[in-house]
Amino acid sequence: MKTIKKVALTALAAAGFGAVPGLFGLPGSLLAPGFAATPGSAMAQECGTITLGAALSLTGKYSTNGLHTKNGYEFAIRKIKEAGGVKVGGKCYNFKVIYYDDESTPARGAQLAERLINQDKVQYMLGPYSSGLTKAIAPVTEKYKIPMVEAEGASRSLFNKGYKYLFAVLSTSEQYLASAVTLAAEVAEKRQGKKPSDVRIALVVENDPFSLDIRAGVKEDAAKYGMKIVIDDRMPRDLSDVSATLTKVKALKPDVLIASGHSKGAATLTRQVGEMKIDVPMIAITHCESADIIGKFGKTAEGFLCSTQWAETLSYKDPLFGSAADFNREFKAAYDMYKNRSVPYQAAQAAAAIYVFKDAFERAGSLDKEKVRDALAATDLMTFYGPIKFSPAGNNIAKPMVLRQVQNGQYNVVAPSKFASHKLIWPRKVQ
After folding, report:
1. Residues 352, 69: contact at Cβ < 8 Å?
2. At what angle do helices 209-225 and 131-143 cross, to 10 degrees?
3. Could you give the CA distance from residue 49 to residue 45 in angstroms, rounded to a whole number?
4. Using an 8 Å Cβ cutoff, are 86 and 362 in contact?
């Protein structure tokens, strides 16, 4: 326990947080820099407590996204407190989360889920970061019939197991870069006078459930257009070098480069595209915002296409957070680390997961976990993050993905066309 606490506190301190007295089940909650006491906070002290459990990657290769996820959870918890709490059966409650560091390791995540349920007596769970970690934890929560709302596991393989207690607010992974394939087909026809079947694709992904699902989705969509995949590679385990793939790209000159490797993979690929001066007309990747490719790599990132679950320019809104733009503004004000960068969609969807739990508890009118599970299954909710409605398998069937392009140091939505705020810049120029 001491080791877990020490590692996580070190990670948070490195990210700019001070003392965190409420971490790991001790009284109190993580308050981000910028959150001041308000009259609503005083009122919130009179409410009861609903304890949620979460194993998150605060260290290891997913630590960046783990922190974004935690920030999203805590921001939503604070907003709910300020709004008077969760109203259940005529009483008010506030959420508290017991966090443990899964160290970006699936086996550790499953072990911690058992600990949260059996030792900490948690009756409701929040998801970890990544499909791999969610895949490890879901059998545990299912075994104990613990409702879990997760925001960061998009692999479609999570939703063919017959789970009844797993609910995911995000779109599934095969949708992430499907719009990039469609966009490449449109460019071929409208700007090049070619057939979509003339498009040649280079594909490189991490060997994890999420990225392999993206690969499967891209291959399915490419096959519909008759496109040829000329490179189909895996990133190395440590995600630290994709130069072997990029050397092939230089030689074969594909029309599109598509990549998925979470934050570390996105950063590695962007850096090496610049170092090797890779000239591909269209590059589409995942995790641009969480990897901060604009802040870290500047002009090298220009023209990159970035799949996203959410954007602050979309017209979604709800009574708690307001509009997508409102959430973006308040979240940046609450956390200094996002002041000069885009809010990652991982943080937004984490906040949405907390909001879904609030809605389910209030509709259930009870703290009984089976009644809460049934309320979750019946969710049909509009949020600042987008519409949320669960299929019988637990995935969100209501919300589309969008594609943003880095244009003059900003992320602008360019596809699908009905959501676009800007026109696509093509071809991408070598910086």
Report:
1. no
2. 120
3. 10
4. yes
Q: How many CB atoms lie within 10 A of CB 110?
A: 21
Long-range contacts of 371-380 (CB under 8 A, 24+ apart): 372/124, 372/147, 373/145, 373/147, 373/164, 373/165, 376/147, 376/149, 376/167, 377/164, 377/167, 379/167
What is this structure's pTM? 0.83
Q: How far apart are CA 353 and CA 351, in angstroms?
A: 5
Q: What are phi and psi of 395, to 5 degrees?
A: -85, 155
Question: In what helix (H) or strand (E) does residue 49 lie, and over which residues does it extend?
Answer: strand 48-56
Domain 175-311+401-419 has CATH 3.40.50.720: no
Q: By the 8 A CB rule, do 47 and 93 touch?
A: yes
Q: Cα separation of 207 and 196, whole Å?
A: 28
Q: Of 96, 113, 95, 122, which Cα lies nearest the Cα of 23? A: 96
| Helix-helix angle 63-82:324-334, to 10 degrees | 110
87 pLDDT higher than 90: yes
Q: Where in the chain is the domain with CATH 3.40.50.2300?
A: 2-172+312-389, 175-311+401-419
Two structure tokens written together for 261: 């490797």
Question: Which residues, in sequence order, are bridge partners of residue 205?
Answer: 234, 260
Helix axes 345-364, 324-334, angle to 10 degrees: 110
Is 2-172+312-389 assigned to CATH 3.40.50.2300? Answer: yes
**C-alpha distances in Å from residue 160, one per residue of 135, 141, 378:** 11, 16, 19
pLDDT at 117: 98
User: What pLDDT score does 178 carry?
Assistant: 87
Query: Cα(431)–Cα(428) distance, rounded to whole angstroms?
Result: 9
When pLDDT is cut at 50, 70 and 90, the band that residue 4 belongs to is very low
Strand residues in 164-288 grouped as ranges (E)? 166-168, 200-205, 228-234, 256-260, 282-285
The token pair at 33 is 């820099």
Q: How many residues does the chain have?
A: 431
* CA 348/CA 384 separation, integer angstroms: 9
Alpha helices (H) along 240-344: 243-252, 262-275, 288-291, 293-297, 324-334
Distances (CA, A) of 22 to 77, 86, 194, 366: 13, 20, 59, 26
Res 359: pLDDT: 98
Identity of the amino acid at 107? A
